[in-house]
């Protein structure tokens, strides 16, 4: 990519969808009153609308999500990043379809129904995409859960 030209909104949305569709890993930040921010690396599976991840049953991450479901996630490097604000919802494995369960198991290496893990759905409310300073402006591609293009 030409680093002197910012990508269009459509190009950035396509980049966001490609990165999400590749599934993989992200940094997940949570917080709650009295515990401050907490950051962990997790695997994720994207179903086209939501991300599925998991965390340990007794983790600070899960406690934070239960107290404050607003989370932030980051995928990529500091020079090519997708930042995602989302609402997190704890879900039981029985409420997940086979495609999501199998997909998450493939990317995470955690077999389906592994004891000690709780599944979490992340519903994006805002997505930002940028590559370097030339793309600092216009980086928001989703706002209030709606794509902007």
Structure, described:
The protein has 149 residues and is an alpha+beta fold. Helices cover 21% and strands 44% of the residues. It contains three helices and eight strands. The protein has helices spanning 9-21, 60-67, 98-108; strands spanning 24-32, 36-46, 51-56, 70-77, 80-91, 117-130, 140-143, 146-147. A six-stranded antiparallel barrel has the order 1-2-3-6-5-4. A hairpin with a 4-residue loop joins strand 2 and strand 3. The longest helix has 13 residues, at 9-21. The protein is globular and about 50 Å long. The mean pLDDT is 92.
Q: What key phrases describe this protein's structure?
A:
alpha+beta; six-stranded antiparallel barrel
Tally of DSSP helical segments: 3
Distance between the termini: 21 Å
- Tell me the major beta sheet: 6 strands, antiparallel, barrel
- The global form is globular
Order of strands in the sheet with the most strands?
1-2-3-6-5-4
A few lines on this structure:
The protein is of the alpha+beta class.
SSE diagram, text form:
Layout lengths: L8 H13 L2 E9 L3 E11 L4 E6 L3 H8 L2 E8 L2 E12 L6 H11 L8 E14 L9 E4 L2 E2 L2
Antiparallel strand pairs: 1-2, 1-4, 2-3, 3-6, 4-5, 5-6, 6-7, 7-8
């Amino acid at each position: 990519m030409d680093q002197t030209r910012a990508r269009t909104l459509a190009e950035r949305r396509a980049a966001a969808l490609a990165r999400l569709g590749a599934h993989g890993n992200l940094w997940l930040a949570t917080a709650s009153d009295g515990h401050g921010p907490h950051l962990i690396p997790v695997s994720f599976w994207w179903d086209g609308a939501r991300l599925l991840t998991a965390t340990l049953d007794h983790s600070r991450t899960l406690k934070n999500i239960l107290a404050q479901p607003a989370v932030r996630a980051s995928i990529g490097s500091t020079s090519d990043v997708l930042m995602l604000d989302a609402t997190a919802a704890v879900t039981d494995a029985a409420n997940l379809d086979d495609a999501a369960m199998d997909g998450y198991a493939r990317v995470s290496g955690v077999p389906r129904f592994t004891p000690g893990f709780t599944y979490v759905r992340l519903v994006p409310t805002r997505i930002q995409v940028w590559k370097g300073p030339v793309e600092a402006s216009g980086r928001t591609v989703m706002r209030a859960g709606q794509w902007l293009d």
